[in-house]
Structure formats: C-alpha cells, structure tokens
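The instructor's notes for this session suggest beginning with a concrete chain rather than abstract definitions. Hand out the sequence below and ask the class to guess, before any prediction is shown, which regions might be ordered.
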Amino acid sequence: MNPNHSICLSLGALPPDLEVWLQRASLVEIRFDLIGELASHIIPARYPNTEFIATFRKAGKNPISQEFMLRNAIQNGYQWIDLDIQDDMELLNQLKPELQKAKTKCILSYHNFQETPDLDQLLKIKQTMNQHQPDLKKIVCFIQDSKDILKLKSLYPDKNLISFGMGERGRQSRLDCLQWGAPFSYAYPDSTEATAPGQLSFSQLTQMLNDESSI
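After discussion, reveal the predicted structure:
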C-alpha cells in the first residue's frame, strides 16, 4: 500500500513549498479557520489526483465567515467538508441541499482537548453521529493514560470511523488507528507546524508506515 494514501495532509498554514505538497498528497485538509481567505486560492480542479477537505472550526470565529467559506468550498469542488457535532449541526442542516447537489461528502467530528470521556459517552456520541448519516465519523480525544487509548480502540471496527488520541501519549495511536480500521490519519507538512497536539509530520508518519510494512 502506498503510505501517501493513508495520510491526510492537514494544512493550518500555507507552506512555502505548497505546490509540491498539493501534488504529493492524495488527500489534503484545508483549515480555513487558520489560513483564512488565502485558502480560497487553492482550486481542487487543478489537482485531479488529490481530494480536498474543507474544515472551519467555529470556536472564536464569526459563524457567517464559516458558512461563507464552506459554501465557497463546496462550489469550488471540494470533495469533503468537516463539521463539528457540538458546534455545527445547524450549519449542516443548512448545507445539506448543497452537499447533496454537489455530491460533497461530510465528515462529522467530535473533539475533546481536555480528556477522553467514558466509553459509554463515546458510544453515545458515535450513535448520535450515525443518526445524521455522515460519510465519515471522526472522534478525537486528549489522552491521559493507556486506558484512554483502549476506549478509542473499542469504537472499532467501523469502516466509517477515524478515531485516535491527541497529545504526546496519543501520538502512537495516530499510526495504530490505521490498523484498527481508520481509512486515513492526519499529518502536517514538514515545512509548517502541527494543527493539533501530538500530530506527526508527514515524513514521520510516512516513515512509521514504511517501517511497519517492512516487518
């Protein structure tokens, strides 16, 4: 398996070698909330071998800007958008007609930057996500100990799930989730900074995948 097909390149800033990365990666997440309007210059049609995810986290931002940028992304041919189950459900309902018309897929996300909730709560979150029938579910939580890793692992098998841990103790789970059944994991370009605590660089995750496949 080509390791690049298991990695989503997460762009929280535009690297100086942006064109190289857009040609190299098969899946790219554009963090509109971090990059801003400069991200609008990235036109997916120019990169036929790459799929794009439009993400705009609502925290601390104007929701009108969020809606405007995500609508533009759908109209500009982004294959995916990522919406937060805690903040964006009203927006999801508003965007559904456009998503269906454009055949844009939806990732429904849950993030907890403080802790990993009890397994029962995680299962309830997953069940709530299923009710909205997203194309992918993403559950990512801060890891405090090994028990937290086991909670996230227990959410599998699920072919439409991406779940791993944040923070230093969650770094290995960003690789292990691919063995658990996640379709891809996230990494940042070597020439920029991480977009989440404990995130691996593209080269680090690629090397780990290569090392694993050679065993």
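Then share the key points. The radius of gyration is 16 Å. Residues 89-102 form the longest helix (14 residues).
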